[in-house]
Amino acid sequence: MLDVQSNDVSASHGATIDQINAEHLFYLTAKGLHSSLARQLIIQSYINTIFDPILQTNPQKINQIKQNILADIINDKTKDDSNNNLDIGK
């Protein structure tokens, strides 16, 4: 929430989208993790980087938000994978 007490305010926001680092994924799978679990751990580490500094404010709420974000990302990835496996022309 942003509480503004002035009429002379400007604000902005940003977002970053990136691919999972192939070297990180290779390392985890080389250690025996399934690729889907390795992806999940890498994504979780990104999410933790964002939310852990503010975790003390409301740990239960922040952890629920983190779990929801991860679930959304995994569900989208599952949809993408199933769309890539369609047999076209049958």
Protein architecture, described:
It is a single chain. With 90 residues, the protein is mainly α. The protein has a domain at 35-84. It has three helices and no strands. Helix 1 (22-30) packs across helix 2 and helix 2 packs antiparallel against helix 3. The longest helix is centred in the last third of the chain and has 26 residues, at 59-84. The relative contact order is 0.08.
Q: Which key terms come to mind for this protein?
A:
90 residues; mainly alpha; 3 helices; elongated; disordered C terminus
Which helices and strands, and how do they pair?
Layout: H1 22-30, H2 35-51, H3 59-84
Helix pairs in contact: 1-2, 2-3
Describe the largest sheet: none
Number of helices: 3
Spatial gap, N to C terminus: 52 Å
Q: Roughly what is the average pLDDT, rounded to an integer?
A: 77
The helix-strand sequence is: HHH
Strand content: under 5%
- How many beta strands in the DSSP annotation? 0
Helix content: 55-70%
> pLDDT below 50 for ≥5 consecutive residues: which ranges?
83-90
Please give the radius of gyration in angstroms: 18 Å
Q: Pairing-aware structural class of the strands and helices?
A: mainly alpha
What would you call the shape? elongated
Short overview:
58% of the residues lie in helices and 0% in strands. It has 90 residues and is mainly alpha-helical.
